[in-house]
Amino acid sequence: YASKIKGFAPLAVPTNPWPVYLPGEMTLIKAEAYARASTPDLVNALIELNKIQTKAPASDPYGVGANLTAYAPLTQAQILDQIYKQRGIELYMSGLKIEDMRRGCRPNSERKRNLLPYPFLERDNNTNTPADPAF
Fold first, then answer.
1. What contacts 24+ positions apart, CB below 8 Å, involve 95-104?
2. In a designed cystine with 16, which of 5, 10, 47, 111 is the match (CB 3.0 to 4.6 A)?
3. pTM summary value
């Protein structure tokens, strides 16, 4: 699988810099902050979300972009769902998916893995070890 997942083009050479964050992540954080404010600002949340939805890959330093049509007005729940979806796409393989699911109150049924299997040594020596998840 590793040969099929190329990652960022700058990472093809080991001495090239590694991105600490993707610029789209900051835009999605702003959109979520607007949507989750004590008085939600759905207009600005939608503006920030549409920046990601309409971004062309050529305008992103790492070539990440959807280049799709902008969203029409959405409810707060719809905006938060789309932010979650766009974070999954924009930040693919960044390790933030579980945290996004927790923060977004996503149902556990969406998770592919909730717990990792425990080693036999741990299971044999600790009766409080939970059962391995059923995969």
1. 104/80
2. 10
3. 0.72
Instruction: Tell me how long the chain is.
Output: 135
Q: Which of 97, 129, 107, 103 is nearest to 116 (CA)?
A: 129
**Residues 24-59: tens digit of each pLDDT:** 899 999 999 999 999 999 999 999 999 999 999 899
Answer whether 128's CB lies under 8 Å from 59's CB.
no
- Angle between helices 42-53 and 76-90 in degrees, nearest 10: 30
